[in-house]
Structure formats: structure tokens, C-alpha cells
Task: structure prediction
Amino acid sequence: MPSVGDTAFRAPGRQWRSLAELERDPAFLDRAAQEFPILRDALSEPHKRRHVLRLIAASLAMGGLAGCYSGEPSGVLIPEVRFPPEIVAGLPNHYATAHVLSGYALGTVVTHQMGRPIKVEGNPNHPSSLGATDPYAQAEVLGFYDPDRAMDITRAGTPASVQTLLAALVSVQGVAAATRGAGLRILTGDTSSPTLARLMGRVLAAYPEARWHVWEPVNRDRAMRGAVLAYGQPVETVARLENADVILGLDSDLLGGVPGWVRYARDFASRRNPVRTQAMSRVYAAEASPTLLGSVADHRFVTGAQELDAVVVALGHSLLQGAPATLPGVPAWLAPVVADLKAHRGRAFIHAGPALSAEGHALVHAMNEALGGRGSTYELVEPVLDQPAASRAESIAALAEDMHAGRVTTLVMIDTNPVFTAPGTLGFADALARVPLSIALSKWPDETGRLATWSVPMAHPWETWSDARGHDGTVTIMQPMALPLYGGLSATELVGRLLGAEGETPRAMVQATWRDQLGGGGGDFDAAWHQALAKGVVPGSASAKATASLRDSAATLSPPPSPPGLHILFRPDPRLWDGRFASNPWLQELPDPLTKLTWDNPLLVSPDLAGQMGLRNGDKVNLRTGAGAISLPIWVHPGQARDTVLAWLGGGRRTAGGVGTDNGWDVYPLTGADGLAVMEPTGNQVELASTIHHNVIVFPPGSELDKIIKHATLDVFQQNPAFAKEPEKPEIYHRKPADPTAWAMTVDLNRCIGCNACVIACQAENNVPTVGKEQVLMEREMHWLRIDRYYEGTPDAPDAFFQPMLCMHCEKAPCELVCPPGATVHDSEGLNLMVYNRCIGTRFCSNNCPYKVRRFNFYPYAYRMNRPAVSWNNNVTMRSGGVMEKCTYCVQRIWSARIIADQANIPDGTIEVRTACQAACPTQVFTFGDQNNPGSDVHARKQSPLDYALLEDQHTHPRTTYEALVRNPNPAISKESA
Amino acid sequence: MSDLPVIEPSAEAGLVPTTAPGQSVRRLRLDDPALLPGQTFEIVTDRIAAIPLRQKPFLWWWIGMILVVPWVGGLMTGIARVFISGPGVYGLNWPAMWGYDIIDYVWWIGIGCGAAFISALFYILGADWRAGIGRIAETVAVLSAATSGIFPIIHLGRPWLFYWLYPYPNMQGYWPNWRSPLLWDFWGIQSFLVVTACFWFLSMMPDFAALRDRARTKPRAMVYGVLALGFRGSGRQWRHHRAVCGALAIVVLIAACDTHSIAALDFAGAATVGWHTTQMPPYFLFGAVLSGAAMILLVGLPLRRLLRFGDMITGRHVDMLCRILLTSSLFITYSYALEAFMSWYSGDPAERTMFVHRVFGAEEGYSVWYVYWGTILFNCVFPQIFWLRPARMIQPIVWFVSLCVLVGMWMDPYKLIAESLERTRLPSAWGSFHGSWWDWLTLIGSVGFFFFLLLLAVRLLPMVGIHNIRRLIAGRVR
Result:
């Protein structure tokens, strides 16, 4: 029987009026039921009960967070009356932690206001982050407060008490001890946690018959198998793109998806602006469906599956054996690419995506070695993940087979959702039904929890102790920074219970892992521990460089040829990853970088194939693979190979709360087969919500797009660095604001990779609401910062351009002129301010905005969001219905910085402000500051010859300007041969 | 106007009626005079006054009321809905922030300005045919302006704060932005409504006096007596009345021109593609006169029959209005041509793209071209039939063309407002606009509301100016 002081369940998710209630004294419960019959009824029915809890979620959160970061609290909780000295009203506190996705950590710093987490920033100390984040890490705030998070322990679908769960775990432990763990299986997602690995090691040692399976739907099995083929052992590639003069991506997810991509994007971008770098890199991408790398590459070659096989083989031949790259069946562009790669020995890097075969990966390793890049453009390090050698697909297949065969008696599933994500061939749900006792620990109620015997809420990483490793192995020890909102166990606690280690708190378990390393050599453990917590990284914990040398056989491997037919490619959803973020409305409504789709994951089909089959956007097709068949709509995707369709994993969640359920289509039933598909039109249609509210346009070269995205090749730039400048024209009326400070921004188009981190950062910082699919279909999305995507060329192989679009803060702002109540006005420092209180909603400002960056609350969207009040940024006004809103240059950040500078007597001209988009951006696209201050970055950026004002002919004199895009194509490759 | 003497209207003028009241509905003829012969002061006064003084309304009046009252209910529901839920109930969206709300407003205020323009201009010019149709024109003007006034309020995101457009004394440091065309527009509508209503009312004042004198019941005599403001028909009163009406007519003429010009400046004053052109004010005024003439004809032709005013609203009136309609149609055709030319001549790719979209716009699941060509057909092509003189006298044709022009003049701001916004400067913000059910309900409801007010006016007010007709008779007598 747990006492009041039990760590895991002293959660504020269980509200109690007296200790008697907390202890579930029957007499008290009777009395309470008499007094509040409605509450009794509501609590007795699980669905109603959840509803009740949801309704009071906000007040719970209030109570829970008031005294946060007390680490290991004990005793009875009373909300703080006087706050600890470090919590000051109006001032933020920052705590280092990490965002863990598929096992890899991205170091983050969470900003708190009055003890409440409200914003995530990157951790500059963390090598995977360097201060930047990805959209998922930015959206974690909303996930943390999600009222749909798991909050009830259920057994067979009915609410169960903590005691019965703990008793069940005790009996699991007893049985395991008696049977040496026979029939006990533990399934986790990818994890790099040294503590969890240590505990699992203990479990496997104590119960030798038990097995640890790993399943991650978005895995890099093939890459790892390729590494084993090439080096005889698993090694991980860590790219050093800042050193790469020539990059070739083969279906590569180097700028979105690969572990460490946030860091890679920074390194990549450092070589893309010819004004800021000595030598611009040249990037080639050969891929079946556009990736972010391909979208920003200098040359993008649309390469179908079979052609890609030929390309890999030919590359291998020419780079490893010196054969000419002009074989029959190999595209003409390959020879100049090979020549370019060879010309940059030691400065070239080839990267292959997870879809390439293991042999292909091994061959790429051999080619990279042959190009001499190891140690310069990339490193090989010891693997980061636990269980590196295991194939995820084989691991889950073996588990499913044992389950089907009835050899599994107890299945513990930790932070994984195999019922939804397991390959369709395995029939995992049926297999699970054959397991007598299954325990699912998850942060959200999910498909697995619904079918498992026990569904146990999992503590959010911000609520417990854990650790995780970044892409290069650097460890972050993650500290709890809030009391559990809805209760819940951590993974380490659950595994600890399996070991019978009830007394060990998560902190003790994590500390035990690190005691030797941090306190080793006679050092002071406590000091080192606190240092690691404060910095967010454990110094010197990066993975060791791998010493393995390339096997000779690697160079002679040849990938198995792809069979002819329609190939289906699976990629993680750019918004939902493998489906785990389905409950997050920010991510659901985040426009995909290229299609700008929200809320849905249709099948992406090439324009050619769609035209041939008479398919248009939204037409439903029946899609069949060797694993299964589903029906889903299509989206015509310019730049996709004709023989390939792309399916995004993660849509169509069936149990994911109010926001996440039934958006999109579940494609997992198609996975696990040979990669071929059959597609048939059905004649049905559905509406898909893209934030591009018109037919997809592919501009011909030399069109008016040249005025919007000013771009040129490196040659043109070298001849005329100021190609983007327009001659100044005389003007009669232009009075610049007189203040010494002039806030301004530059946006470097050379660096933008369209990753969307800024979009979510802006949404999180500025309390920008989501509106839902119906409203997106009505063209009413609210993003203050959007990333415009333009195509130029032909629909088969267009060039893509990204352009972040936010308020330009025009010195001569057309919006200000036309607002009848004067709700949008200029301040003396050049900010175009929006006075929400004054806005009566004539919307004239938006009509008059040439950039269309203003957003209108057609309904009170913010108040419609199911989101606790404490989760909003308290420094930013909430906007009511009927009010216009737009980017403010994060005016709250400007004033916070100014107040602090004032108090510290720092002169006004030197304060540094970072906007939310700027802080989040992996590639440092945004530069913000006082352009009148000659020492400021933004002043320097405005002097760039590439600097241009968008729609300059409108004479709006925007304070936000762009740096024109320069691409570095290979003169030896003409457009036609591509 | 000085050629018309100031005379004492009196039943003792000694004129003998040659036609009996009630037999006057007849075909239109091109050579009709403005007033058919056989009218006397007394007959005219009796016949016109008899209508508002009837004990019971006509049967057709009840039928009309039954038809329009549900739409008034629809309008009220629409207004209530937008107050409760916000402008999201309309089809508005991110690029097209203005939709039916402003389209309907421009349409109605255009009709109002046009009707007021016609009434005031020809009052000043002293045209004989103005006497028979002036009251209907002014009524249309006032009621259209009143109907249009609904839209600027309900189009707001927070309509209950509309009064912030007044520079009222307050403690919030609040002061309206006088640079905004929308603010001038707000004042424009109000001043127009005030001026036109004054003109309308003042011109009715002697008629109210006549109604007061003929009222058979005390309450009616009192009501019309109050409305007559003590008008007794003294020479002095007539002199003053005439002077004020003349002055007001000038003011109304100016107000009609500037109100719709200001509505045009809502667009011309914006930097938006498709809006930013100096031809907007005259273009809007041409459209106003076109739709005003069409609405006078649309309303006047049936009223002429129903109220048996065939000898006071004759072929001459219809002929003149048709000529005005044709003339303004030619003017607006010129505006359309200029619009097309300027979009090309400006050299601005955004203008050209928008114009091509407006004229040929068709993409998957969304076409707009028919709005443009509907505008051309209804506003430019159909009125050309009035070059044929006999066509002006065929009432079904005149009525149908007027109806088409009114539809066309609704499509005109539609293409201007919604379709310009669909093609903004940045292609990333292009979109498509679709009116919602609430948009349609409010639009049709506003039509119902207008005709509801019109039916009330027909019931309560003399729909032909008694004193204006008597002045015609007096002119003939001399």
C-alpha cells in the first residue's frame, strides 16, 4: 500500500480534499459521494471521468506547477505562498533538458515563468543543437500541457488504482524471478539512455530468459546494417558539413530526419551564403521524392528507385574502380558529378537516406573513404543508441512471432506504440491479444494502451529524471522541472519495479549511472552533477571515434536491383513524425515544407503519373502492397519521380485524443513488404487542407517570381554582387522614425531550408492559436510567420525556393494608413505595432498589406483551443475574436531585454534581442537587432550586396529585408541534361 | 426654376377634371407629356392623398408584405448570428478579408447615391418629368442608404465598438485615424443619409399638410399634422420651402457624388492590386447613376400600375430614365475599358495577373470568369437595347433590363472586391473567395428589408409629390 509520500503517485492529477480521501478511506468516499453525487457518477464512468478531469485540467496545472523544480519533493504539498528566491514574478527561469526523438537527444533550455514552462529554446552547449531546435522540440510545451495526455491507470479498459498496478508489478517480478524471466519481454522504442540501458542490463542479468526488443518505425536499420557490412561493426556517421565543398545526397534526409540534422543544417548553411563564406559549397541531390536537402540543392536530380540503384552502382564503379561514369542506363549528369567529387578529394561527402539498401550504404561508406572525407567531412563514432546492432524490423518480427506462438506471457511496452506502428505484415494487434499480461507505459492514450492489459501513464521527460544522448553521443541529464501534471511512472521507475527496486527514486537511479563518471578521479560528484545539470551536457561524454577500418569487401558490394513497378516510399510525416505528435495541434496544423499540407497525410504522386491516371489533388485511390491495402487521397507533388509514390507515416491515428484522432490516413498496414505498390483510382474525393489556397503554380524561369525571390547563380553573383539591388528612386514622402534605435531584421534566403522550426517557435512564443482543418480549408490559418514555397521550372523537376514571410515592419506601412480607429501604429523605433484593444476588425489593414502577413481572428480561435490557461505565454496578450494580429518582432522580448538593460545600466544601443524565430532557426536565417548600431549583426547584414527589400516598388521601406539567393550550379551540367 | 411661379395651391382654382381618377393605367408612349392632360389641383391632390389615407391597405400590399417580412427576419437572424459568433460565419478568408459585407454595402449605397443624384440634379435643372418620379427616386435613395448602413456595422470584427469611429470625448486617449478612407466613408454614409432624408422630408412637407387636411380620422390628422410641421400653405412658407429645397438639392447632389466617391476611395486609397487606381471615384459614380436609374425603374414601373399613376408617370419619365440608364451604361463601359487598359498599361505584373484572373479565372474547382462577363453583359450589353426608341416603351423589357442592371451592379463590386483580393502581389497569398449561406441570407435579407421599408413608405407617404404635380399643372394653366 503506497503511502502519501510515494513518489510516483503524489501527483496533483489526483486532487484531494483531505488526507482521508487521498488514502481512499471508504467512509470518507461514501460521505463525499453523498455530498457530490454528480462527481461520483462522473468518476465511476471512465469517459465521463476523463472529461471531468479535462475540465479541471487548468486548475490542476495551477496547483501542480506553483512550486515546481523542487526536484524530489516529500510530504504534503501546499501551493507556494512565498516563492523560492530564484522565482521572481515577471522574470524567467531557465532549465536545461533535452528533447528526445527516436532515442536521440536535442539539447534544450526550457523557459519558465513563475514556475511554469512556457517556451523551449535550444541549448547552445549541446552539440546537436548549438542553440537551435527543430519543430518537434518547439512544440513540446503544448505536448507537456496537453489535456489529452494519459492520466489514468486502466486495467482492461477500466480505471484501476495505483495499488493494484504495483501489486501486479510485484507479481510480474515474482514470476520472473521464479522462471528466470521466461516469457517476459520488454519492448521499447529506440533509446540512448545510459540509465535505462544499465537497468535493462540488470533486468536481463537477473532474468536471463527475458528478452529486450526494440521497435522504432522511423529507423535506420539499413544504414546500420550497411555500416556493419562496411566496417564489421556498427558505427555511426557524424557529418562535418562545414568542411564539405561538395555534398551528394542520395535520397538523403540530411537536412530533416537524420539524427543531428539541426546541427548539420547549421554547418550546411555556413557554406551557403557567398557573402559570408569564402567558398560556397555545391550540393547535389538525387532522389525520388523531394527532400529538404534536394529543395535547397544546387542540382536536384529526380531519380526513381531503379535509376537510383544504377546511380549508386555507377558511382561505386567510377569512384572506387576508376571506371567512367557514363554507363548505359546511367543519367548523363552523373559524370560531371563524379568529376566534381573527385576534384574535391577530402572535401566531398556523400550521404544516403534510410531508404537505400544496406549494400548501398556500405558502398557509400566505401566511396566516402575513397574520397578521403573521413576525419574531414565526416567522422565515424561508436553507436549512440542502445542495442545498436539489432535490426529493429527483425526485433519486432521476432517478438510478434513469439507472441503469435504464445511464448510471451508478459509484455512490457515502454514509450512505444506497436499496435499502431508495427509493420502491417506482423498482425501485432492480434498477437497482443494472445499475451496474457501486457503493460503499456505511454505519455498519451494510444492504440497499444487500449489493447494492453494495463495502460499506465508515463511521466513527461520534464517531470522526471532521465538521461539521453545526442547524435554524437553527448549525454544530457534531464532533470524534472515541474511536478507531474497527470501523475505517471517514468521508464526507469517501471524497469526498477521489475527488478524489485521499489525504494530507488528515478534520481537515485540516474545518479547511480553517473556517479563513477562524474565523481571519478576523486572529483566532487555533487559539483560535477550540478554543473552537468546546469549546462545540459555531460562534458566529454561524446561517443569515441570508431577505429574500425573499411573492409575490402565493401567496395565490391552491389545493391540488390529494385524490381520494376510502382515503388512506395515511406517517410516520417514532416509534422507528426511516426504519429506520436498527433495530439499536438501546433504540429497538426504546421504546413509541410513543400506541399504546405496541414492536418492530413495524402499519398504524394508525381504530376506525370497523376496526369496519366486522371488523378487530381484529393482524389482517393486504393493502394495495395504485399502487406495490406488501404484507401487514401493523393496529392500531386512536383519533382517526384514517376515510378514512386510517397506515403507519410503517422497519420490516421485511431486513439490519440480529441485533436489527434482520425486526421489523415494510417499507412502502417502497407509497411513491411517489398516496397512495391499497386494504385487504382476509386473516383472518390476528399478535401485536403493546404495553406496554398490555389492550384500549385510552377513559374517559368524569368517570370515575375524573380522579383519576389531574387536569385542568381554564383557566376552572376561574382560578376555583379549587387544583382538584387534596384536603383533608388526619388520619393517625396518618406520620413524615417527619428529614434536612435531602429529595429530591423534580415532574412537570408541562402540559409533557409524550410524546416519550420521558426513557425512553431513563433506560435509558441506569441500565443498564436491553431484553427482546425475546416478553418484552414476556409483559408483562415493564423501563423504569424509562414514559409512561402515557390516552384520554378517544370512540374516534373522544379527548383524550389523557401521564403520566410513575416511582418515587414514597413517604415511607410500601408496598413497604418487605412485603419480607421488607429489600431495599428508606428513607434519611434520602427516597430509596426498592433493595439489589439483598439482593433474593431475592419480588416482594411490586411487588404492593404502587400505581403499579406496579417491574420484575423474570424472566431475567437485562442479561446477555442483545448489548452490550459497556464500554458500560454504570459508576456503576450491573448487576442479575442474579431481582432487582427501579426508579427510584432517579439516586442515582449525587446522590452524584457530593455528593462533588464535599464536595471543593469547597460546603454540602450547595445542591448541584444533575439526573436523567437531567430532563436529557434537551425540555420540562422534571421538576424535581428538595431540597424542604427554599427556594431550590430543586423547592421552588418544590411550592408550585404545581396540585401533587397521585397516588393520594393511598393515603396513601403520594410525593415525586414532579404538576402538574395545564390546557387552554385556546376557549369558542366546544363539544365537539360538534368 | 424661376419660370415656375410660386402659386397658392388651392382647391378653388376653378379647374374641371376631364378624366376620372382610376382610369389612368395605360401604355407608355414616346410622345407622352410629363403629365397627361385632364388633371386639376384637386384631382391630383385627391388621388395621391387617397392612397396613404385609405382605411385599409391594398391586397397587393399585404401580399408584398407577406413576401418580404420573412426576409427581414432572415436579415435580423443574420445580424444576430454575426454579433454572436463573429465574422467567421461569412465566407471571408485570409486574402479576401472583405466579401459580401462590403459588396452589399457598395451596391446599396450606389443605388442610393444614383437615385439621389437623379432626383436632385433634375430638380435643379427644373425638368418637368422630375415631378412625377422625384418622390420615388428620393424614397429609393433614402431607403437604400438606410439599408446600406447595416453593412459597415456588421462587417466589423467587433461591431459593438463601431462608435469608436466617432471622435467622442473619452479617457482612453483615443482618436480616430483621419487618414483612413474608411473613416471618411463612415462619415460619408451618415452625412448622405442625413442630407437625403432632409431633402426627402422637406419635399414631402406640403404633401403632409395636404394629407393632414384630408385625413378623416383624428389620429391621422395629428400624425400628418406633426409631420407637416405647421405648413399651412402661405406664400411666405412656400417661398421658404422652395428656397430650402433648392439649396438642399444642391447639397444632395454634392453628397451623392462625394459619398460614392468616398466609397470608391476605400479602394483607390488602398495600395491593393486592382483597387489602386484614380478612376475609381468617377467609375463608382457612373455605376451609382446606372443602378439608381435601374432601381427607380424597377420600383416605379410596378408602382405606376399598382397606384394607378399612369397619367403622372408617363412614357416621358420612362424614356428619360432609360436614356439616363443608357448613358450611364456607356460611361461605365468606358470605365471597364479603362480598367482593362490600365491593368495592361501599368506594366505591373501583379495587376495583369489579377486582371487575367478576373476575366478568365478558372482553376480546379473554382471559376470566377462568369462574374466579370456577367457584369459586362448586364451593365454594358443589355442597356444598349435602349438605343431602340420603341424598346424604351415596352415595360417588360425596361423592367427586365433594370433588374439585370441591378444584378450586374452587384457583380461589379464583387469582381472588384473579392476577386482583386484573390490575386495579391505575392502568389503565396492567392486564394479563392466563396460566399457562405450567411452571406446570401444577409444579402437577400437586405433586399427584403429595402422592400419592406418601401412598402411601408407606399402605405404611409404620398409616392408622387402632390405639390410637384400641382406646380406642373399651374405651369400649364399659365
User: Anything to note?
Assistant: The longest strand of chain A covers residues 92-101. Chain A has 35 helices and 39 strands. Chain A touches chain B through 57 residues (CB under 8 Å).
